[in-house]
From TrEMBL:
It comes from the Bacteria. SUPFAM superfamilies: alpha/beta-Hydrolases. One of its GO terms (molecular function) is hydrolase activity. Keywords: Hydrolase. Residues 76-192 form the Alpha/beta hydrolase fold-3 domain. This is Esterase. It comes from Variovorax paradoxus. InterPro entries: AB_hydrolase_3, AB_hydrolase_fold, GDXG_lipolytic_enzyme.
Length: 291
């Protein structure tokens, strides 16, 4: 017997339409070309260090754009691609805004589905964050002022970092981050098990239970901004709204930031501009965390 569809959906097609962000991007090819050009530009113009290992597998590396001074706040960015596509080097352009604000930027690479499970991806991203908290001082960063940034699946992974018991599992202080700016994140992943993505991401009951941030929000001192493009499907707004409700219910601090005129791909463009609301949120977070 087929499993019942997630609440609110009447067909598999409805799930696909809700979670295929390209359906709301007016010119996907132009958006992809812009991203490639801007990422290449960032790698040419910024002090870009690629392939710094944080773990034992070949996939476990970070790319670092150090600030112009030591002891700088850190922007820890996790790319999207529904856990089965893209790489950190495809998103180097997000470092433009952080570098202009004199942040050190860390772009995380991780293995992709279906070569690994979502459990393993979460483990790798947690390992990357632990590496940064322990080692970023050697690259000019201040581990006390790390802001998480995540886009789409990277927003999901950023939320998983916030739900991590850092002291118990890694011997690090709980709530070690200055803040999180999560863009078009996925905080209830159950519907995706029924989507066009399932052959690649291969979710099952256990994976969904262990990796749905909405299911185990804990008290956390880290402030969050949950944002999305207003041209995206309503599902992305609903994901952020539900996550903020759960975040507040646990006694935590956070806010919603809808982006007028932005789609799923352009919703991260603000990270390229130090004057943008996204970068302003990052500045507020590190100023509040300043020792």
């Amino acid at each position: 017997m087929p499993l019942p569809l997630p609440h609110g959906f009447e067909s598999l097609q409805a799930i696909d339409e809700a979670y295929n962000p390209r359906l709301r991007v007016s010119d996907v090819d132009a958006a992809a070309q812009r991203q490639a050009q801007r990422s290449a530009q960032a790698q040419r113009e910024l002090p870009y260090r690629a392939g710094v290992p944080y773990g034992p597998t070949l996939a476990e590396t970070v790319n670092i754009v150090p600030a112009r001074r030591s002891g700088a706040p850190v922007f820890f960015f996790i790319h999207g691609g529904y856990w089965r596509a893209n790489a950190a080097g495809d998103f180097a352009q997000v470092a433009f805004g952080a570098h202009a604000m004199d942040f050190t930027t860390v772009l995380v690479d991780y293995a992709l589905c279906p070569g690994v499970t979502l459990d393993e991806i979460v483990r790798q991203v947690r390992a990357a964050a632990a590496w940064v908290l322990r080692n970023i001082g050697e690259h000019g960063g201040d581990p006390r002022r790390v802001v998480i940034g995540g886009h789409s699946a990277g927003g999901h992974l950023g939320a998983m970092l916030l739900n991590t018991p850092w002291q118990a599992q890694y011997g690090l202080p709980d709530d070690p981050f200055a803040g999180a700016v999560l863009v078009s994140g996925l905080y209830d992943i159950a519907p995706l098990r029924y989507s066009y993505l399932q052959p690649a991401i291969q979710l099952d009951d256990g994976i969904v239970l262990r990796n749905t941030p909405l299911s185990f929000v804990r008290p956390c001192r880290t402030p969050v901004v949950l944002t999305w493009g207003e041209r995206e499907q309503p599902a992305f707004e609903q994901q952020s709204t539900r996550m903020l409700e759960a975040w507040h219910a646990a006694g935590n601090t956070g806010e919603l930031m809808p982006q007028p005129g932005a789609d799923h791909l352009s919703a991260i463009h603000g990270f390229e501009d130090a004057a943008s609301p996204l970068c302003a949120a990052m500045r507020r977070m590190v100023e509040a965390a300043a020792p």
